[in-house]
Specification:
The complex is a heterodimer of chains A (215) and B (267).
Chain A lengths: L11 H4 L5 H7 L4 H9 L3 H23 L3 H16 L11 H35 L8 H18 L5 H10 L4 H8 L3 H22 L1 H4 L1
Chain B lengths: L5 H8 L6 H9 L1 H17 L15 H11 L7 H7 L33 H5 L6 H13 L15 E10 L6 E9 L2 E9 L6 E8 L6 E7 L2 E6 L11 E8 L10 E6 L3
Antiparallel strand pairs in B: 1-2, 1-8, 2-3, 3-6, 4-5, 4-7, 7-8
Classes of the chains: A mainly alpha (215), B alpha+beta (267).
């Protein structure tokens, strides 16, 4: 049932009073959690609402990573397409929809780096083949890093709350453990031990599947 | 030799200052240094500026939506005015609770919407959140200085500690007054309303934060005077707005988003 559908039929006589249209429009806007709910339900209008509300933030991230232009536009576009087609993976209990979109955007940025790196290597490989030279050399460290980034962002997605938010505040908002405790109301000692366990978990993931071991 | 606390080493991997004892030990201990270095790898990989939380909003060019619409087949379009408004929006982050999710038998996540603030889960589910702050801001602006401060002794009802006129929101025909009286440590809210008769819905009075982001339901009110006891300990400075809404009989306890009158308590 739409929460908006239940509003105010009994005040019909009042609605006849001439007023500004703007406020009528505004009161018809769903709140963010309603947008999220309808997004998950596959309501097309919710995709447009989500885009209206959060595309500028997502695109701002993409432009920060790649500068204005086709790569950034592609990241923003892929973020919304991917979020829409993968909307069944969104879990409202893990955080608000816009925060999830930001997470999807991070994946798209990391994927774009990885794609660029593959292109660079294949160009390089073609060039060295022409020169009959070995293909290893500078750049493999970068290759390891971009691959590990994709791997670890995937691992972050599998971490439950509140651990994930805690590490994200440390990684992406550059907060100290004391600031995280103040921001979330979680005791200092708990924040510290969550941070340690999450870093250990990410380290384990790198040790098992990290690019450095595969190359 | 006493090694550093493992939690301290994790903080060092994040680039935080270790405690003086740990820092002194770390300078000489190869084992602790290796631990920090191994934990730091994921920090180096993920804590990069390009992945940081959004800092600068930028409107995507129109072809971005065109490509999304083409790929998803959706027929609707974002509205330019709302895209403009989106430039000013922030990204709310998840607010984790201190629920321990890794104790035995409770693996999983905290309850949906649970936060450290008591009213969050209610207001999160409240429709029409977006216009409430605007309406509140407009009203507060108009009401400053409107209600005279008066602490009068009233033998029957106690001392009036706060009061306000209740002004209609746009498109509403309603008015009223509200006052808070205190006697013997108990505070009551009296609401006098002049409102249309309802059919199938009822009026409810709320105390709202100034930004209308959180609210406390106080009770059901009707045409004329209603006196309701306030929750003990509620801080009227934190919840200064008196708001009367129309609530449908739909079983949803959250604010309907349809307010008829509102006013700011002057204390």
């Amino acid at each position: 049932m739409s929460l908006l559908a239940v509003r105010l039929p009994p005040l019909g006589t009042v609605a006849d009073v001439p007023t500004t249209q703007g406020s009528v429009q505004q009161s018809a806007e769903p709140d963010d959690s309603e947008v999220a709910r309808r997004f998950v339900d596959g309501d097309e209008q919710a995709l447009a609402w989500a885009y209206e509300r959060w595309a500028a933030q997502v695109h701002g991230m993409a432009v920060r990573a790649f500068g204005p232009g086709p790569d950034a536009e592609d990241v923003t576009q892929q973020t919304f397409i991917s979020a829409w087609t993968g909307r069944s993976r969104y879990r409202p209990d893990q955080g608000p929809l816009p925060a999830w979109l930001v997470g999807v955007c991070r994946h798209k940025i990391a994927d774009t780096w990885a794609k660029r790196e593959r292109q660079r290597r294949s160009t390089e490989a073609a060039a060295s083949e022409a020169r009959s030279a070995p293909t290893t050399g500078p750049g493999s460290e970068l290759a390891t890093e971009v691959a590990d980034r994709v791997l670890l962002l995937g691992e972050l997605n599998r971490i439950g709350q509140p651990q994930r938010s805690i590490i994200e505040l440390a990684f992406f908002e550059d907060l100290t453990h004391a600031q995280i405790a103040a921001r979330t109301g979680i005791p200092l000692g708990t924040v510290k031990s969550h941070i340690r366990r999450t870093l250990e978990r990410l380290r384990d993931r790198l040790e098992v599947d990290g690019a450095a071991l595969r190359s | 030799m006493q090694h550093c606390d493992p939690d301290e080493l994790a903080l060092a991997a994040l680039g935080e200052q270790a405690s003086p004892e740990c820092a002194a030990h770390l300078a000489d201990c190869a084992e602790c240094q290796r631990e920090v270095a191994s934990l730091r790898r994921s920090v180096d990989v993920l804590a990069v500026p390009a992945l940081a939380a959004p800092s600068q909003a930028m409107a995507p060019p129109p072809q971005v939506w065109a490509a999304i619409a083409a790929a998803t087949g959706v027929a609707v379009s974002p509205r330019p005015a709302e895209m403009e408004a989106g430039l000013l929006r922030g990204i709310p982050m998840p607010t984790p609770t201190e629920v321990e999710t890794d104790v035995p038998g409770s693996a999983g996540s905290p309850p949906a919407g649970a936060t450290v603030m008591p009213f969050r889960s209610r207001s999160d589910r409240r429709p029409a959140t977006r216009w409430l702050p605007l309406a509140a801001a407009v009203l507060v602006g108009g009401l400053i200085g409107a209600g005279a401060v008066a602490v009068t002794q009233d033998g029957a009802g106690g001392a009036v500690v706060a009061q306000t006129g209740l002004d209609p929101l746009p498109e509403q025909v309603a008015s009223g007054t509200a006052e808070v009286r205190e006697r013997g440590g108990v505070r009551e809210l009296q609401v006098d309303l002049d409102v249309p008769t309802l059919d199938g819905s009822y009026y409810e009075v709320w105390l709202l934060q100034a930004d209308a982001q959180r609210m406390v339901p106080v009770g059901i009110v009707q045409q004329g005077a209603t006196v309701l006891r306030l929750p003990d300990g509620i801080d009227l400075a934190a919840f200064p707005l008196v708001d009367v809404s129309v609530e449908p009989l739909d079983g949803d306890p959250t604010h309907s988003g349809v307010s008829v009158v509102r006013g700011e308590l002057s204390t």
